[in-house]
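Q: Please design a sequence for this.
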């Protein structure tokens, strides 16, 4: 059974609906080869020569959840000023609100005013992060919202990664990756010898083949439509 996440546009004109992150795979990842020199051959050390494109954890991160894009063009000036064609897309937080944050760059914190109401089923929250493995001139500050109980607009403070950048960030640029997840209580404990033995057994199984052992033996498909 699929769970449903709802994105409701609050503006009086059409916007590009947030889509599955699998529809926004970065170009560098799409175009790169799966194997060194595009040849599926093993080396003398008994390992395959797969690139990062063969790494399922990276693939799962890139394609997790949904992508929200900029609804309008954004112009960034040489002194960090910002302008845009429609009102209220960007506002600012004062520096004193997070003076010691590791992303702080000495300027005001700009904030994307998100036009989407986001709703998840009961018991599910949403993680909001910078789109994974994607080059960007800005980085949003991650956060978690209980989107099953809070239906207000969720905005996204960010910082510029390159203070020397001047130019236009075009409409339709990915800005936020939304990953819904079920809230559960957790506690940590120390592992046992049985856990260690199980791990060692998996390592032996992994060494029995050159390619795709994690994908074939242990990976579980995730779907976001």
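A: Design:
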């Amino acid at each position: 059974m699929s769970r449903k996440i709802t994105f409701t546009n609050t503006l009086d004109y059409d916007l590009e609906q947030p889509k599955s992150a699998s529809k926004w795979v970065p170009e560098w990842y799409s175009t790169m080869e799966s194997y060194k020199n595009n040849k599926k051959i093993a080396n003398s050390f008994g390992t395959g020569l797969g690139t990062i494109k063969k790494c399922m954890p990276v693939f799962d991160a890139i394609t997790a959840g949904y992508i929200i894009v900029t609804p309008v063009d954004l112009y960034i000036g040489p002194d960090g000023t910002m302008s845009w064609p429609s009102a209220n897309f960007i506002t600012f937080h004062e520096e004193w609100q997070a003076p010691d944050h590791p992303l702080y760059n000495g300027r005001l914190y700009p904030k994307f005013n998100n036009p989407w109401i986001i709703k998840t089923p009961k018991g599910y929250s949403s993680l909001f992060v910078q789109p994974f493995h994607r080059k960007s001139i800005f980085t949003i500050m991650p956060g978690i919202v209980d989107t099953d109980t809070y239906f207000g607009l969720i905005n996204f403070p960010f910082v510029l990664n390159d203070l020397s950048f001047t130019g236009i960030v075009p409409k339709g640029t990915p800005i936020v990756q939304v990953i819904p997840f079920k809230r559960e209580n957790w506690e940590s404990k120390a592992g046992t010898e049985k856990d260690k033995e199980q791990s060692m057994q998996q390592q032996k199984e992994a060494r029995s083949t050159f390619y795709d052992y994690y994908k074939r033996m242990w990976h579980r498909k995730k779907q976001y439509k």
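Q: Thanks. Anything notable?
A: DSSP finds four helices and 14 strands in the chain. The mean pLDDT is 91.
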